[in-house]
Amino acid sequence: MATVPVFNQAGGEVGTMELPDGIFGVEVNEHVVHMSVVQYLANQRQGTKSTKTRAEVRGGGRKPWRQKGTGRARQGSTRSPQWTGGGVVFAPKPRDFSVRLNKKEKRLALKSALTSKVNDKRFIVLDQLALNQIKTKDMKQVCDNLKLEKALIVINGVDRNVALSARNLPKIKTAAVNTINVYDILKYDTFVVTKEAVQKMQEVYA
Fold it and tell me: Are the C-beta atoms of 2 and 21 separated by less than 8 Å?
């Protein structure tokens, strides 16, 4: 088991905590992590773009001029792709970009990402994270105490004061245990988690 220090909100070390190898000490599978990131980004795409082909554009039923004798190139419709207002060649249509991974792959990717943070010493455990009021300044002070620049903060459940206080910090994101994903874990330099959240993760992802 990996042993990591536990800090308080003031940035002081108040103890240590052992992390279970089943979640934070697995063999990192880079391929599955890559597939998980591809899945996340692909599933963010709406796939709603749509333009009209020449068959769908209004008008253009009459031949613009006679076939021969005018000196101009032959044309059959004013809605051909080369005309202004004409249809689009190979027009993009609504489509589903979603990618699927099975449950075992998703779980392995998440564990691999968490393990990589522990191995890189980018994993911080807090004894607790609690704010008395919604105030960005207070959350900024906690981040300064822990020397956080770009961090994902994971808490157990939803804490409105913490979530709203961190909302205006551009490089800080908060998340509940059941909402974390591989993309966010890798995107943010530091992974910050409370002791309660670590225990919850053992229940959810073990």
Answer: yes
pLDDT tens digits, the chain, 206 residues: what are they?
789 999 999 999 999 999 999 999 999 999 999 999 999 999 999 999 999 999 999 988 899 999 999 999 999 999 999 999 999 999 999 999 999 999 999 999 999 999 999 999 999 999 999 999 999 999 999 999 999 999 999 998 888 999 999 999 999 999 999 999 999 999 999 999 999 999 999 888 87
Q: 21 and 36 share a domain?
A: yes
Distance of CA 21 to the CA centre of its chain: 25
Look at the chain and report how many structural domains it folds into: 2
- 109 and 166 belong to one structural domain: yes
CA distances (Å), origin 93, targets 46, 53, 79, 197? 12, 10, 19, 43
Give the separation between CA 36 and CA 106, rounded to whole angstroms.
7
The residue among 74, 96, 118 that closes a domain is 96
For residue 54, give its domain range. 46-96
Asked whether the beta carbons of 64 and 78 are under 8 A apart, the reply is yes
